[in-house]
Amino acid sequence: MRAWKPPLLPRAWRSSDQPPFVAREEELDAVVSVWPDVVSGAVHCVFVTGEPGVGKTRLIAEAATRLSVHGAAVFAGSCVAEFGAPFEPLDAPLRRLLDLVRGATATDAASRLIRQAITADRADPGPEARDPGDQHRLATAIVGLLGEAAESRPIVIILDDLHWADEAALRLLPRMIAGLEDSSVLLLGGVRSTHPDRSAVVDRVLANLSSFEGVRRISLQTLTPDEVLAYVRTRSTASDADLLEVATRLRFLTGGNPFLLREAWRYAGDIAGPDVAGISLPESVNDLLYTRLDTIDPAQRHLLEAAAVLGMDVVADELAAISGEPAETVLDALERALAAGLLEAPHGAVDDLRFPHAIARQAVLDGIPARDRPALHARAAAMLEQRAPAPARLTQRLAYHYVHALDLGFRDEAVLYTAAAAELAASRIAYEEAARLFEQAADLTQSPSRRDELRLAAARNWRLAADFARARALAEQVCALGAPPDQLRGAIEYEEATWRPGIHGARAVELLMRALDRSGESGTRAERVEALAALARATSFSGRLDEARVRAAEATRQARALGDAQLLLRVLRTAYLHSFRPQILREAYDHAGEIWTVGTARATSPADIGEWLYAAPNYRAAAAYVLGDKGGLEQAETALIAAAARAGSYWQYWRDCVDYGRHFIAGRLEAARTAYRRAARAEAAFLSDARSSVAAQQLYMIKRELGQLAPVRGVITGTESPHEHWAPGLLGLYTEFEMRRPAARMLAWLLDQDAAVRHESAEWPAMLALLAEAALFLEDRDAAARLRPLMLEYAGLNLMSGYFVSCFGSADRYLGQLDGLLDSGDPQASFDAALALDDRLGATLDAAHTRTALAHWLISRDARSRDALVLAERVRADATAAGWARVLHAVERDARLRGRADGLTPREIEILRLIDQGLTNRAIAAQLFISEHTVANHMRSIFTKTSSSNRSHAVRYARDEGLM
Q1: Which of 54, 294, 435, 730 could in theory staple to 50 by disulfide, Cβ–Cβ 3.0 to 4.6 A?
Q2: What is the pTM of this model?
Q3: CA 261/CA 252 separation, integer angstroms
């Protein structure tokens, strides 16, 4: 690792012009108090929130300054209001860290990726080089850089004005905090919490982060009268009575806002002596700022207004160019504004000025007549455009100014530069910002074809950012309003944003069919083939498997005929069917395996594998569980681990769902709960597609097995309407709570409503299992007879709804139970098949349920069934050790399985049978794989329970009891 020294603190923090720090000691202590944890290797994140001017930046600066004394390396970043760069405020700290820690010429992949994201002027690698894993790899690279830096010394990253940050930067924060869990890093952020600057995106990110350990929020309030008095005391030596009067007036004028308080004091001048009570203050805050503007002449005020239009930072040569005034005139005006307190020189140089606060700049902007603003923006854009070729870092500024000059006829320029800014953001991996800008450009243009093009570009970038709902909304607009070729492209994009989050394909089918029906009008031949493949997949997601298979075969045939190898691979990937229905499962499973094999054949490393190819092992993981293919499940899980490592939250979500399912079926329920929590957190990255019902069902299944549904019982009345709730879920609850009448009512209603189309849905296996459980609980033979042929379709398979949402185990177990109730078929064979499937997968919890069901069936046929007692004892031992409350309840439900009145356990009965066969203690120990000492202990217990004095008496007792 390179040796490096911490950078100097920002010059403004070290300036003697810094206002006094008063009244925030408690909040400051709250920030500084986390430092010992940070030094010991625990990441912390503190967000300071409040209204504009309340002192967020001042508190952050004071905290960082004090921490630097204790060895912190401080890296400061902030955001620009209207035209900030992608990934502000992270960009400046990362740029400095990269140069210090790895050097400006570092060429490793992670450093190149970070530099791509934070470099303003760079070449665009092109849309074809982008994939949804880019942002995950960027987050991983940033975590690696910060972690590497923190190995040398603890670091503080300042993220000020986060309310102006772009969405891509904000969504990096949870990934960074999670990845830096054991690193000596403190993130300090400042966020406005009041409108109009309050951001819904920031609110959502902060709410998500609230569940992270080490994250806290400090809300700054305005200064109290006593705190205003404390400030005044630092500025004057007048008497307490005079200072109290001034403080009271200042508090009334400023509302206790620290920035306004400072400006009010500056307005009043330096006060000392007995005249302090006679100071003159304006009537309002606006008067406070406008009075200061009146101290400069009109020409200088116009220059200041032009500076405000250009931004927070005042650049003299830009101001000269936009105004046409000589440099000397501009510099003189700036010096007058500086003297009037309208500008400040944070670095001590008159050629490096800025507005003291966004409030001050906004006051200047508000003073510009509305009729004059477009012209100022047009002149600003013309000035920037003269720097031809315009540097990429100016593109967003040009877009901003031309958008605000629309009334003067600059619409084409506004569209051009807004789209260019979007492309620049996309090339820097800021897909959310790119999508937002593409949408803005689409709304600006008056060309229908250009509007369609821009909306599709926005949809693609929302999809790259895993915000599938926004992608679908834009694609659907193109389908509704676009020309035929664009309607086809919109329909393809809509379907792509539909299957990834696992949404029903009916709407995608409708859009694709409508576009394809425009024979000869829609797209190129290759696009039409891709649309047909997308239609096959959407049809599969709609549950119409026969139609889907025909369309998939036709799309594949047409792709082969075109002779385009890349097109064929895309079609193979798109057209394969994602259904878990029994009649197509094996075919789709093998097809997905072929796609993975063909698609990865030429890859020399995981980095060469196309992100979209991971859809194949993603499907195979779930299908492998249904089929009971343990090896296939493990192989698919390995591929998904690689996908998650490479491509981030989208694939991490599915990988966590697999992990949840593996732990659940094995009965590791607390581990399953941990995986569920990870999946729920990753699910948040789907933004508007996040569906709490998935996570809720996973949690329900865990609590069901742990016997933790009691709190729900208090709100279940038994009178719930199936029209207002998910009826199968209600039936499941009624069954669990043994509510016979409500269960019978709901079972009858569901069977009356049953239709073949329901059997095609992803939820059907769960519905089938819940229906069967209710019929068995109610001993409803008519319902069981109706359900048996439906269950028979799944013979040899596991029942699972969705993607590891609800795992119910082997259908053969349910078949055995239904046949036992109906006194038909071969229950023993079904239970044997179920146990074989359970054992093959290592599904210990499923096996316990199967053994319990088998024990119940055996004891129903023979009240003294030895095998039933042995099974019950094994299940009881396993369930007690693992905490499977539901299994324990099931095995104890039949008194005949609870154990004998004499207390003999199944193991003791087994030993009595071996004694009856003439075996010695040593032989028994060898046969049962226990010690001879354990056998002797069992014998003593048997003698006590049977009141026997020797082995012969004990055997005679067992024979009399029918145990032999």
Answers
A1: 54
A2: 0.75
A3: 10
